[in-house]
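Saturday, quiet lab. Running sequence design on the structure tokens for the scaffold JK sent over.
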């Protein structure tokens, strides 16, 4: 039974477009990030949050983000490129509202 269910899920997933597949993955990723936020492990400075820190593609431990803290300490060299890009696009969501005005 489990095998059949898994098969059905895999087959229906394969029939989806790239955009649909990406959305499913991102939704799950953002759910995980929200969980990490609630646990106080994910202090991101943009909204929607960066994903590269969660995936462990930046200097932090996998599943954590300290970009907001680094930004508040003026250590922009430690803020991940995805957050920097988000800030440039005006997606700042820092807990320090003054920083977002810069
Ligand atoms: Zn980040």
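Result came back. Writing it out in full:
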């Amino acid at each position: 039974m489990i095998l059949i269910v898994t098969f059905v899920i895999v087959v229906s997933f394969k029939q989806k477009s790239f955009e649909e597949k990406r959305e499913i993955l991102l939704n799950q990723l953002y759910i995980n990030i929200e969980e990490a936020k609630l646990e106080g492990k994910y202090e991101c400075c943009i909204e929607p949050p960066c994903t590269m820190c969660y995936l462990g593609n930046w200097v932090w431990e996998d599943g954590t983000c300290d970009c907001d803290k680094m930004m508040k300490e003026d250590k922009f060299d430690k803020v991940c490129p995805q957050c920097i890009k988000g800030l440039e696009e005006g997606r700042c969501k820092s807990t320090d509202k003054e920083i977002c005005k810069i």
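Notes for JK: The chain has five helices and no strands. Residues 9 and 74 are 46 Å apart (CA to CA). Ask whether to fix the surface positions before the next round.
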